[in-house]
Recover the amino acids of this structure.
C-alpha cells in the first residue's frame, strides 16, 4: 500500500518515498520520491482514468505546478518522479544526480509506473484504449533516460502494452553532447577512460549561471524553486556520470524502439553566452537544438518534433508567448494521440 504524505508544494500535492536499497555506486541507501497533484476538491486519479508521469533533468526536480495543473485540466492525473539523489530524494553525503549507469534508474521508473497505474486503475486490457494508461513526459536528461528505459520495457514479455504507456512527450531532450565536435570524439574517449577509474572527479569549469538567472524569480525570471536542489550554476558534472550519459547517447544513436508515439518540443535556436542578455530569454542556453532535430528519428515509432520560437531550454518555463505556444502544440498532439488510441 502506498502511503502519501504532505509535499513542499502545498496542500494540493502529496509525496511518497520509493525505497531502492543500497546504492550500486556506493553512497549508502537510496530512494526516489513520487509526487502527485491531488487538489482537495478535484477528481481522484481513478476518476481521471489516465495519468502523466513526469521525469526531470540534470540539476532539476519537480516544481512546475503550472504543468501539473495544465495536465489536470486536460483530464490527466499528474505524477512526477524525483530520481535518486535528486531534489526531494537527495540525502546527506550523496553526490547530487550521481549514477554511473543510466539503467540504474529502471528500478524507480518501474516502481513509479506501477504506483501510478494502481492509482489510476489501469490494466493491460484497457491500455490500448487510453483508459487507465500513462503518458510519459520528460525534460532534458530525463528525455534521454526515459526513451532508453522504454526501449528496454518494449523488449520485455508484456511489452509497452502491458506497461500501460501510450505516448511520450520530450521537452528539449538531451540526445547528444553539445559543443565542438572533438568533445564527441576524442573527448568522449577521454571521458570513458577517466570515468572508469575516477568517477567522481569533476569535469572542467563550473557551469554558467545564465540559464538559472533567466528562470529564478530572485534574479531575472518568474519561477520560484529550491536553490539547494536546483542551484543557478548547476551541480558539478562528474566523469562517471558523464560517461554514463555518453553511453546512453551511443545507444540512442544506434536506434531505439520506444513502442509509442512521441512529441518532441524544443526551442527554435540555441544561444551560448556566459553573460545575461535579452537573447538569454528566447533560446536554449543549455543544448544544441540541431542535435535534437538530428537524432529525433532514433526513437522509433511515430515522432513529431515541433520547434518553438523564442522558447527556453525548458519550453514550459519560457516567457509567456512561447510557453503558451508550447501548451497549444501539446494539446493538439494530445488530441491526435487520444484519437489514435480509439
Amino acid at each position: 500500500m502506498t502511503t502519501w504524505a504532505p509535499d513542499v508544494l502545498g496542500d494540493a500535492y502529496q509525496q511518497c518515498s520509493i525505497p531502492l536499497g543500497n546504492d550500486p555506486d556506493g553512497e549508502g541507501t537510496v530512494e526516489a520520491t513520487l509526487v502527485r497533484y491531488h487538489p482537495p476538491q478535484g477528481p481522484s486519479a481513478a476518476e481521471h482514468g489516465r495519468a502523466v508521469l513526469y521525469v526531470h533533468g540534470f540539476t532539476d526536480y519537480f516544481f512546475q505546478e503550472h504543468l501539473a495543473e495544465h495536465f489536470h485540466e486536460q483530464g490527466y492525473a499528474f505524477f512526477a518522479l524525483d530520481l535518486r539523489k535528486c531534489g526531494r530524494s537527495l540525502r546527506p553525503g550523496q553526490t547530487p544526480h550521481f549514477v554511473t549507469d543510466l539503467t540504474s534508474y529502471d528500478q524507480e521508473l518501474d516502481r513509479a509506473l506501477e504506483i501510478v497505474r494502481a492509482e489510476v486503475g489501469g490494466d493491460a486490457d484497457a491500455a490500448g484504449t487510453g483508459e487507465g494508461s500513462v503518458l510519459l513526459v520528460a525534460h532534458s536528461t530525463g528525455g534521454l533516460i526515459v526513451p532508453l528505459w522504454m526501449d528496454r520495457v518494449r523488449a520485455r514479455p508484456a511489452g509497452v502494452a502491458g506497461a500501460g504507456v501510450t505516448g511520450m512527450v520530450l521537452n528539449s531532450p538531451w540526445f547528444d553532447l553539445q559543443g565542438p565536435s572533438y568533445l564527441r570524439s576524442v573527448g568522449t574517449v577521454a571521458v570513458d577512460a577517466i570515468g572508469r577509474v575516477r568517477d567522481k572527479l569533476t569535469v572542467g569549469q563550473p557551469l554558467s549561471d545564465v540559464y538559472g538567472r533567466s528562470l529564478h524569480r530572485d534574479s531575472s525570471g518568474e519561477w520560484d524553486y529550491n536553490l539547494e536542489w536546483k542551484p543557478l550554476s548547476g551541480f558539478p558534472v562528474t566523469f562517471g556520470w558523464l560517461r554514463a550519459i555518453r553511453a546512453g547517447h551511443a545507444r540512442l544513436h544506434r536506434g531505439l524502439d520506444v513502442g509509442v508515439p512521441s512529441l518532441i518540443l524544443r526551442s527554435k535556436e540555441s544561444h551560448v553566452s556566459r553573460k545575461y542578455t535579452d537573447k538569454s530569454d528566447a533560446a536554449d542556453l543549455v543544448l544544441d537544438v540541431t542535435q535534437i532535430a538530428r537524432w529525433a528519428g532514433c526513437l522509433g515509432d511515430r515522432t513529431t518534433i515541433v520547434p518553438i520560437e523564442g522558447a527556453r531550454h525548458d519550453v514550459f518555463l519560457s516567457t509567456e508567448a512561447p510557453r503558451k505556444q508550447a501548451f497549444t502544440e501539446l494539446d493538439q498532439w494530445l488530441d491526435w494521440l487520444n484519437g489514435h488510441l480509439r
Summary: Residues 124-128 have pLDDT under 50 and may be disordered. The chain has one domain: 5-341. The longest strand covers residues 10-22.
